[in-house]
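The material for today's practical consists of a large collection of protein records. Getting from the letters to the tokens is the skill we practise here. To make this concrete, we reproduce a full record directly below:
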Amino acid sequence: MKHLNVCLFLAGVLSLGVALFQAVISFVPEWSAALGAGDALASNPSLLLILGLAVTVLFAIAGLYGLSGAGLIRRLPLLRLGLLVIGAVYTLRGISFIFLFLMALGLLPSPGPASLSAWLSSLVALVIGLLFLVGLLTGWKVLKMRALGVPA
């Protein structure tokens, strides 16, 4: 029976969802501006589209690594290292959620209230990053066996 790592599956699916969301907002400058894209970027639809689709590809690759680690698609190169780097990047991005929370409680100085998109993007990044890291940690032995060509 094939081993399914639920954390990596969820991380992969959520990353693919983020990729889809990024692709959609890349086509609509008004939506990108509303979600925090700078004026210079939102006023240049070609640049917005190119950069947005480049970021979409990165999120999609992260999603594929999550699904590969979960055992749903073939093993991708440098899988464990890739999962570690992806999980670390997502988690580092998501740590800002903790600072936003502390500012909202008044425990840290704040220049003003944070936008809803800042809260949500930070929370989503933190959740996905932790799913990648927990999935990697709990599936380390299975991922090592797959790397050696032993079926899980």
Remarks:
- The chain has eight helices and no strands.
- The mean pLDDT is 91.
- The CA atoms of residues 62 and 91 lie 13 Å apart.
